[in-house]
Amino acid sequence: xxxxLEIRGFRIFKGYLDTAEQAALxxxxxxxxxxxxxxxxxxxxxxxxxxxxTSAGRYGWVSDRRGYRYEERHPEGMAWPPIPGEVLAVWxxxxxxxxxxxxxxxxxxxxxxxxxxxxxxxxxDFSWPVLSVSLGDEGLFRIGNATRGGKTESHWLQSxxxxxxxxDARLTYHGxxxxxxxxxxLLDAPGRINLxxxxxx
Length: 201
Ligand code: MD3
Ligand code: FE
Hints:
Blueprint: E1 3-7, E2 10-14, H1 19-35, E3 52-57, E4 60-64, E5 67-71, H2 85-94, E6 103-109, E7 115-118, E8 130-136, E9 138-143, E10 153-157, E11 162-165, E12 174-180, E13 192-198
N-(carboxycarbonyl)-S-(naphthalen-2-ylmethyl)-L-cysteine (MD3) binds next to strand 6, strand 8, strand 11, strand 12 and strand 13.
């Protein structure tokens, strides 16, 4: 399946990556996680996030009692590993060859992790799109509006789907309501990986 769906300005490329490409990405991400281990960020309100995270690139996204921001180092002190070439290739094909992302955030959802509705607004320049790659179990993606609340639309993101959020969609509220364990054979345990590439500054 290779079709593009458009929901509220989000371009969803269904089945953009074939199984071999997905497996290669998972291997590359395993390398990232070996160099920069997954951690459970603390929200500024003092509640740990359900999603475990790490990053690759010049910057990584972190959250703690001081707030959400980009940092040049992992909380344990190491520099973030480089963004894998396989990820940059997808960005090059769908976003730009002129400018590569500064950050590839790696989100890992276990069977009961979710991500509440939020905006991505920690970047300096919203004119660059955000690109997201889904791997592993399906996740129910909810798309809202430019302000909190209002009607929403939901879509199941499957392994190999790529989403590009640009233009008016860049500041749209979004979240992951739940994942559906056992819907993919890609990972060796239930779970979902999402890669989010962003230009930061
Ligand atoms: C819409 N991640 O890390 S990716 C995030 O599946 C995040 O892990 C979700 O939201 C996930 O911030 C959803 C889709 C996504 C990513 C960035 C966006 C949608 C976006 C930025 C602007 C608008
Ligand atoms: Fe987001």
